[in-house]
Amino acid sequence: MVVLQEVKSHYGKLNLFIDGEFVESESTDLHPVMNPARDEVIAEVPFSTKEEVEQAIKAGEEAFEKWKEIPMPTRIQYLYKLKQVVEEHFEEISRIITQNHGKIIDESRGEMRRLVENIETACSIAYTLAKGEQLDQIASGIDETLVREPLGVFAVIGPFNFPAMAPFWFIPHAIALGCTVVVKPSEITPVAMSWLFKVMEKVDLPPGVVNLVHGSKDVSQTLISHPDIKGVAFVGSTRVGSQVYRLAAEHGKRAIVQAGAKNFIVVMPDANLERTIPALLTSFYGNTGQRCLSGANLVAIGGIYEDLKSKFLEAASKLKLGYGLDETVEMGPVVTKRAKERILGYIEKGVEEGAKLILDGRNTKVEDYPNGYFIGPNIFDEVTPDMTIAKEEIFGPVASIIKVENLDEAIETINKSNYGNMACIFTSNGKWAREFRRGVQAGNIGVNIGIAAPMAFFPFAGWKNSFFGVLHGQIDCVDFFTDKKVVITRWW
Amino acid sequence: MGSERLTFGQVMNSLLKLEEKVLSFYKAAADQIEHKGIKDLFLSFIDRGLKRKEILIKTRRETVTEMTLEPITSLNLNEKIVEVEKEIENKEKKPLNRAAEIENTLKKLYSDVSRKITYISADTSYLLDKFAREHGKREKMIKKILEEEYDIFS
């Protein structure tokens, strides 16, 4: 076993970044930040005071007045430089993500790749989609023009599960379009974003364009309700997301709220199981199931049920658990002790409700990491759609097999869910795939793909309780961070 | 699914370590050999080896896609690496003969890994195929020297 070296064993008390400088928080409300594989403290995060949050917003507001006047080609140069420095620090940030979140190093590298992809996309869309429109001669001697103007300071509130990537669905787009941001990473996994701000310092963005605060609910509320914040981009659970959306609406703010999920993966009788099983493993157990695009319910259609069940069970039972910095490891721990307890609670509930636990990961131990928050892969069989484990988001390594007779029944089952983030089908039949794509009420669809994660140049879709708002993350940000101005002109 | 199940990072890391071992072999061989042409050839392999390590690291960084982070099976990579290591350690043969065997084994290894990794990362597959071709060319060059200048080593 070779474990990649950690960047640091302890990152100290995390600083804030306000008006172009790292500042030590005056807050006495300090919280430990953990390495979930080792159950060790790797940093302390101070929950910012109200005054600190207001300073960050003020810095963003003051910077906005100057930043929006910087020509776009010049603003884009900062992003090119940002891409370059992030690439230079790619591996170290990947390792920090693994150290703080627990996901395996390949998953952290994948997250970082997506982060870079968002910077690249922001550069390209700023030049194209942000251009505006013009139509000459709408009436005699009159022309009409649409221009986009940046709105101001935005709050970006990140989730624990993609601590680096998710805020970058928004940050580079905001910068490119002339806005400024105050970022609040998850209090559970704040180290990667803190490190990214150190890296961003090398870009020499004008003071106040990007700001960093730390905290939890109170800090989010201060941000969202502040009159100078023009909107909030949030990624997290449906429970918190709906609160964020309500608060934003109450204060007249625009909001992108990407929320939770309960994703169905349908396997048709003609699916190529040799290729399907590895895809199912990453879908259900990648990121230890803590992903809004994780598979949760495995829907077996008709005759494939027995074969699918036995092959999936065999493959899942061989997954190697451990510290994600060991490259041979296939699944890391869950993020906190509390998350582990919550997931175990759901497994208990599944057993109580009559589902058959055919793979039990509850007592899995990892020899070198006895205190880590590990749960092995779990598979429930004989699950019915009305059971709690089939309806609620578990956000852990738990798969529920639901047997149905045909595709229509599968689509009907999926559409009864309160969530609509992702739905996937594995089949060799194009007609079934098409029916599925058109019939399911979900925003991200996979055909022979277990994690249908849209690239940065597409919106990160999501329906029903998996999303609140109108515009989605990633490319939709052009509309989110700008407002339209229509100019009708006549000269004589 | 086969018995050996590897992560993408594990495959790339194993290839990086292998490149290190091959580099060490050519460094040691270049030190031993007095024939200028062969020494220069080995030194060129070392230069290229250093560059290849950088390319592998860059490829690992730039081609990882979470959508296809599926376990890689049926590669038998460890077995293949052991074969290369055996050739490197085989002190009974002269360096040039060992080099020819090493290049032959590496050609097969990279070609095979390239084919089997396509569904994970087409870019990586393309790169490894390029490496396989490089080894094929090197093998030919070494064999030509062995045929033409056999008396040097006899």
Break the fold down into its secondary structure elements and pairings.
The complex is a heterodimer of chains A (492) and B (154).
Chain A: E1 16-18, E2 21-23, E3 30-35, E4 40-46, H1 50-67, H2 72-88, H3 90-101, H4 105-128, E5 133-139, E6 142-150, E7 153-157, H5 171-176, E8 180-184, H6 191-201, E9 210-212, H7 217-225, E10 229-235, H8 238-250, E11 254-258, E12 263-267, H9 273-285, E13 295-301, H10 305-317, H11 337-352, E14 356-359, E15 378-381, H12 388-391, E16 398-404, H13 407-415, E17 419-420, E18 422-426, H14 430-439, E19 444-447, E20 459-460, E21 463-464, E22 467-468, E23 473-474, H15 477-481, E24 482-490
Parallel strand pairs in A: 7-8, 7-10, 8-9, 10-11, 12-13, 12-18, 13-16, 15-16, 18-19
Antiparallel strand pairs in A: 1-2, 3-4, 5-6, 6-24, 11-22, 14-15, 17-21, 20-23
Chain B: E1 5-6, H1 8-32, H2 36-63, E2 72-73, H3 77-89, H4 95-117, H5 122-148, H6 150-153
Antiparallel strand pairs in B: 1-2
Helix pairs in contact in B: 1-2, 1-3, 2-5, 3-4, 4-5
Number of helices of chain B: 6
> What structural category do the secondary elements of chain B indicate?
mainly alpha
* CATH superfamily membership of the largest domain in chain A: Aldehyde Dehydrogenase, Chain A, domain 1
> Helix tally of chain A?
15
Strand order of the largest sheet of chain A: 14-15-16-13-12-18-19
The proportion of residues in beta strands of chain A is 15-25%
What is the SS-derived class of chain A?
alpha/beta
Helix content of chain B: over 70%
Could you characterize what this model shows?
The complex is a heterodimer of chains A (492) and B (154). By secondary structure, chain A is of the alpha/beta class. Chain A has two domains: 16-259 and 466-488, Aldehyde Dehydrogenase, Chain A, domain 1, CATH 3.40.605; 263-447, 3-Layer(aba) Sandwich (Aldehyde Dehydrogenase, Chain A, domain 2), CATH 3.40.309.10. Chain A contains 15 helices and 24 strands. Chain A has helices at 50-67, 72-88, 90-101, 105-128, 171-176, 191-201, 217-225, 238-250, 273-285, 305-317, 337-352, 388-391, 407-415, 430-439, 477-481; strands at 16-18, 21-23, 30-35, 40-46, 133-139, 142-150, 153-157, 180-184, 210-212, 229-235, 254-258, 263-267, 295-301, 356-359, 378-381, 398-404, 419-420, 422-426, 444-447, 459-460, 463-464, 467-468, 473-474, 482-490. In chain A, helix 3 (90-101) packs antiparallel against helix 6 (191-201) and helix 9 crosses helix 10 (305-317). The model of chain A has no long low-confidence stretch (mean pLDDT 97). Chain B is elongated, with a radius of gyration of 16 Å. Chain B has a single domain, classed as Up-down Bundle (Ferritin). In chain B, strands 1-2 form a two-stranded antiparallel sheet. Chain B has six helices and two strands, in the order βααβαααα. In chain B, 78% of the residues lie in helices and 3% in strands. Chain B is mainly α.
